[in-house]
Write a structure and sequence with these properties.
Elements (H helix, E strand, L loop, with lengths): L10 E4 L1 H10 L2 E7 L2 E6 L4 E6 L2 E2 L5 E2 L2 E5 L5 H6 L1
Antiparallel strand pairs: 1-7, 2-3, 3-4, 4-7, 5-6
Length: 82
């Protein structure tokens, strides 16, 4: 990990299951997509989650979707393990 600690990160990458659990726990107001990134906002207008779409580059290499949730939404013990 570079010089950024988990507590300093705004978003933490999680697996799809944790991402869906997080979405179930918030009141989603807005979903906005631009390019390969989709941001999910809560009713206060704060971004709560981000999805980077799966992709394939020019050489045929595949990249899976990536899921991120607001770090403060993680339980403290889970955030320390990330």
């Amino acid at each position: 990990m570079n010089n950024t600690t988990v507590s300093n990160r705004v978003f933490t990458q999680v697996d799809y299951r944790r991402f869906r659990q997080h979405l179930a726990a918030i009141t989603t107001k807005t979903v906005k997509g631009k390019g390969y990134e989709t941001a999910i906002y809560d009713k206060k207008g704060d971004i709560q989650a981000i999805v980077h779409a799966a992709s394939i580059d020019d050489t045929g290499r595949c990249y899976p979707a990536e899921y991120f949730i607001r770090t403060k939404a993680l339980p403290l013990t889970w955030a320390q393990a990330a």
